[in-house]
Amino acid sequence: MATTTANLGLTLPTPNVDSGWGSTLNTDFTLLDDLFTANGSGTSVGLQVGSGKVLNAGGTIIAGGTVILGSGDATNTVTAPTIRGAARTGTNAAGANLTIDAANGTGLGGSGKIILRTAPVGTTGTVANTMASVFEVNSAGAIGIAGANYGSANQVLLSGGSSAAPSWSDVDGSVITIPSQAQGDILYRGASAWERLAAGTSGQALKTSGSGADPVWSDVATQSSQTIGPSGNSFTGIPSTARIIFISIYELDPSTATLATMRIGTSSGYETSGYVASSSWFQKDSGGGGDGLTTQSTTGFVVDIFSTTATLGGVITLTNVGGNKWAASHGFGMVISGDPTTVFGGGSKELSGTLDRLQFIPTNGIFSASGSISVTYI
């Protein structure tokens, strides 16, 4: 016959035999009462909260050992537990915060880490997998992955997918992904985010639009060379982004023309007034002297060819100086009867709109159908 209880070891008095009921019960009632010591230091017991029952702890629960959540520990059938904050009721009622604290330290000690561990897949068998630290947060708020791997300054956390741990990575082209990316695209900073500039067309160059604006592709193209015609040549379709235009002329045979004119225009047509332009020629003779003359024009950028007996070549340059204002300069050379001759000049013109065309024509007479002319713009 048992004389003590199995769990608390309470003394069981024998009726009509035991004379120490008073001392025995007093001792046992003290053990029972100690179960409810406020600081949790009383009689050590095991406790089972049955199905449908609630353990309501309004104070603090201190567990010096391991807390196991879910039933079926150390069996082949376990349940998946949930930790959550108390649910709210009512209309549009906000829930309360759920705070997880690491062990607090004092002074320079700081606190411990918050460490989460899981067990990677092991070999086939019945031996439990080994738990390993996969995520932790230290007292500085730094995040460690796969143990105490905190990465380096300015690195980002890169996902390894559903079957591998993430890793810290430098920010490079493999990390930054822009929608609809393709070979030849360029990444640039837009007004509020990184943007994609799609590849331009062959031969274009990247051009800045200045502070506070996006970069653009700009044409840097040479139109196919044309044979200089008797009535000159016209070029249309010059892009609005053009800021410098070169008109290159090779072996122009002036035939009967002693003057030539270059005009610029808009989609409304070529403008024939408002130019401030002049052209000069200078010829050095064999005796060491020389001669020259200057011609002015308001109807176009004039080029004083001077002679119809020799071919000449050179370049006319147009430069945008803001808005629709253009400055021009030219330089040509030729040799007449052994005497070197230079033609040079320039001028300015403000168009009524955006430049999209230009023409080089004889002012008087005609050109011979020879030589070539081309236009390059940037």
List keywords for this structure.
mainly beta; Jelly Rolls; 23 strands; single chain; nine-stranded antiparallel sheet; 378 residues
Quick structural summary:
The chain is mainly beta.
Structure description:
- It is a single chain.
- 4% of the residues lie in helices and 34% in strands.
- A hairpin with an 8-residue loop joins strand 8 and strand 9.
- 13% of the residues are buried.
- Strands 10, 11, 13, 16, 17, 19, 20, 21 and 23 form a nine-stranded antiparallel sheet that branches.
- It has 378 residues and is mostly beta strands.
- Among the domains are: 33 residues, no CATH class; 157 residues, Jelly Rolls.
What CATH architecture label of the domain at 221-377 applies? Sandwich
The total of beta strands comes to: 23
Element-level helix/strand string: HEEEEEEEEEEEEEEEEEEEEEEE
Q: Which of globular, elongated, flat, extended, rod-shaped describes the shape?
A: rod-shaped
Write the layout of secondary structure elements.
Blueprint: H1 21-34, E1 114-118, E2 132-137, E3 143-145, E4 156-158, E5 167-169, E6 186-189, E7 194-197, E8 205-207, E9 216-218, E10 221-222, E11 226-227, E12 233-236, E13 244-252, E14 259-266, E15 269-270, E16 276-284, E17 290-297, E18 301-304, E19 312-320, E20 325-336, E21 339-350, E22 357-362, E23 372-377
Antiparallel strand pairs: 1-2, 2-3, 4-5, 6-7, 8-9, 10-23, 11-23, 12-22, 13-19, 13-23, 14-15, 14-18, 14-22, 16-17, 16-21, 19-20, 20-21
